[in-house]
Each structure stands twice: as C-alpha cells, then as structure tokens.
UniProtKB/TrEMBL annotation:
<feature type="transmembrane region" description="Helical">
    <location>
        <begin position="376"/>
        <end position="395"/>
    </location>
</feature>
<feature type="transmembrane region" description="Helical">
    <location>
        <begin position="160"/>
        <end position="180"/>
    </location>
</feature>
<dbReference type="InterPro" id="IPR001851">
    <property type="entry name" value="ABC_transp_permease"/>
</dbReference>
<protein>
    <recommendedName>
        <fullName>Xylose transport system permease protein XylH</fullName>
    </recommendedName>
</protein>
<feature type="transmembrane region" description="Helical">
    <location>
        <begin position="109"/>
        <end position="126"/>
    </location>
</feature>
<comment type="function">
    <text>Part of the binding-protein-dependent transport system for D-xylose. Probably responsible for the translocation of the substrate across the membrane.</text>
</comment>
<feature type="transmembrane region" description="Helical">
    <location>
        <begin position="352"/>
        <end position="369"/>
    </location>
</feature>
<feature type="transmembrane region" description="Helical">
    <location>
        <begin position="269"/>
        <end position="287"/>
    </location>
</feature>
<feature type="transmembrane region" description="Helical">
    <location>
        <begin position="245"/>
        <end position="263"/>
    </location>
</feature>
<keyword id="KW-0472">Membrane</keyword>
<keyword id="KW-0997">Cell inner membrane</keyword>
<feature type="transmembrane region" description="Helical">
    <location>
        <begin position="81"/>
        <end position="102"/>
    </location>
</feature>
<keyword id="KW-0762">Sugar transport</keyword>
<keyword id="KW-0813">Transport</keyword>
<feature type="transmembrane region" description="Helical">
    <location>
        <begin position="50"/>
        <end position="69"/>
    </location>
</feature>
<feature type="transmembrane region" description="Helical">
    <location>
        <begin position="314"/>
        <end position="337"/>
    </location>
</feature>
<feature type="transmembrane region" description="Helical">
    <location>
        <begin position="200"/>
        <end position="224"/>
    </location>
</feature>
Amino acid sequence: MSKHSIDTSKGIDTAPPAVDPAIDPRLLVREEGFKGYLTEFKRKVRGGELGSLPVVIGLIIIWVVFSINDGTYLQASTATYIAYYAVGIGLLGIGLVFVLLLGEIDLSVGSVSGLAAAIFAVLSVQHGLNPWLAVLLTLISGAVIGALQGTVFAKLGVPAFVVTLAGFLAWQGVMLWLLGSTGTINLPDTGLNHYLQGGAFFLNGDLAGGYILAGLGVASMLVGNLIEQGRRRKAGVPFRPTSEIALRVVLLAIGAFGVAYILNQDKGVPDATVIFLALLIICDFVLRRTGFGRKIFAVGGNIEASRRAGINVAAIRISVFAIAGAFAALAGLALAGTTNAAGQSGADPNNLMMAIAAAVIGGTSLFGGRGRVWSALLGVLVIESINYGLFLLGLTQDANYMITGAVLLAAVIVDSLSRRTQKAAGRA
C-alpha cells in the first residue's frame, strides 16, 4: 500500500503530516544577531549555566571594596604583585582542574611541589647537573609520581582521596630527607629558575614586551577563530559569523592591551606570568579541541557511559593524575623561585588548599564533568587580590583564611545550586 493514500469511504487524506526538519538552535540564535545572544544568555542564567559570571562579578566587588578602603590598591604595583605571585598556586590549580573534571581530588600536589623543588636543588646544586636537564628530570619525576598514584586508584580501586592523602604524607617525608639537616638549599640564578624569580621580566622589562604579548594573543585568537569558521562552514555545520568573531577579538584586544599598559606602568610583564599564560592556552586547547580532552569530560560526566563508548577509563585516569603531578612539579619550581631556595615551606599545606580553592572559585565543579583551565586563573586572581588587599589594610593572616574560606564556600554553594537548577530545567 502506498504511504500516501486516500480513504475513499470518508474522503479523508490519510497521508502522514509533514515533519519540519530539525533546526540547530545555535543557528536561530546567530540569525537573530545580538538580540539572539542576549536571549540565549538569559536562558542559560535561568537554567543555572552561570559560567564565569559569578567569579567575574566577585572580582569587581573585591577590587572596588579594597580600592575604597585603600587608595593605593588600584596601582600598577598591585597588578605586578598579583600577576607574579599568582603563578605558583595557579600552576597547581591547572593540574587540579584536570583531576576535578573527573570528579576526583588529588591531595598530594602540595607535597609533590615541595619534593620537586628539592629534587631540582639536589640535582642542579649538589650534583652540578645542567639546570635545564635538572628541570626536565624534575618534571618527569612529578609525572611519574602522579601516574603511580593514578595507577593505584584506577587499577586497584583504592579511592583517590586515600591514595593522594597517603602521598601527601609520604612525599613530604621524602622531601625532608632530600633537603637534609639544613632544610634549605639555595638555588642558582640559571636555567628555568632565572625566568621564575621575581626579578625576571619579559624582554628585560622593555615596554614593548607587554604589547607584543597582547598582540600575539589577539592575533592567535583571530586566526584560530577564522580557521574554525572556515572548517565548520566547509562541513556544513553552524559557525560563528564574522561579526561575532570581530567583537570577540576587539574585546580581547581591549583587555589584553589594557593589562599590558597597566603592567608597563610598573616593571612590565613577569616572565613567570608569560609561562603560566602560555600553559593555560595549551591546556585549554587540549581540553576543548582534542579527543583526549573530550574523553576527560566524558569520564567525569558519566563513567559507565564512557566505558560503553569504548573509552579506556583507567588510562584516562592515570594520564590525568600524571598531568597533575607534572604541573605540581612545575609549581614547586615556581614557588621556590619566589625565594630562590628549595625549603620545607615548599610543601606548605596551605598551597594545596589555596590551589583547590582557586580551581573551585574559578568555576570548576567539584562534581566532575564541568570546568575549564581558565578557572585556575580566575580563582587565583580572586585569592591573590584578597591577599594583597588585606596586606595593605594591615590585617593578619587569620582574617585572610576566614575570608578565603567564606569565598570558597560561596563558590561551592553557587555550583551546587547551579547543578540543581540545571537538573530542574532538564539540562543536567
């Protein structure tokens, strides 16, 4: 019988109703222009998809409050201080973002960072090894430690909390053993340590350095967006219109050149900050543009579904903990660079707590499957902005801990409420 027939007894057309082809909602948004994006933004906020909005608003409030209480807060020297001292905790935060995306935690990164600084000091100072080779071996050591802990977690089924808590204690003991009775080893101003110390600025503090970096960042975004637009256009899938790309590039240019101008009013852009931003960009690309990154989000979102999709969950878990270990090692070198010495303070538990706080405050979910490496940057900006503001006001460390703890709790509450709202809206 034909699919399209007529019931002659009743004279009724029994043909199935025509079905309109599904239209990608992103196409509708872009066809409506900026009005469509505003509508989409409102829909996301109502649905609990807040993104980085809470932390950006929080940063603005922090800057306004401290500037009102101390007129010297909004100076170029403040920006330089925050840009430099954010690096060590920020690097720890990047590694933790990878782990948190799995819905897990790594409590050992603080001790691994202190151990890494000790390993580097022993190799480069006591044994006279080439400083760059010492850095390479240090980073490999951090990755091996992370992979070892990840293997115990992924293969033996021991909870990551327990494995890394044991690592937190054990690696701190190894660090103290390496440092010996003195407990401190001074580091030479060579190799990577030269670029991680507080007195090293991009192009030796040349004013053009900051603008060169800003220009490179803007150009990279423009080229990357145009390449993606061409690729998606060729594949026949939704793509960003040129007007939207232009707006994004202009906004980035205003921010990048504005920051460069402010830093140039003091000493320029710290080399450590340049390294940190470069790694942020690379990790963001890995998470958002590669199959490996998509597998991390998949495992963090639903382990069983990932297994059925053919993802090697154990391999993903081990590799993520290895990445966290490598970043912890690099963070250890950065933290040691602030004092030009590897010491017991390198494994300060507060570094771990602040790194976790930075990742969560910046917007990475503790429940897994949601977050970006830029969370580490946003979160550490909040923490260091509070630190420096309280320092200018002459408040003691106890106030710092209480305020940072309150901000962390607020971030977790916002994340929990956001997830609840998304579930109610059918988006989680």
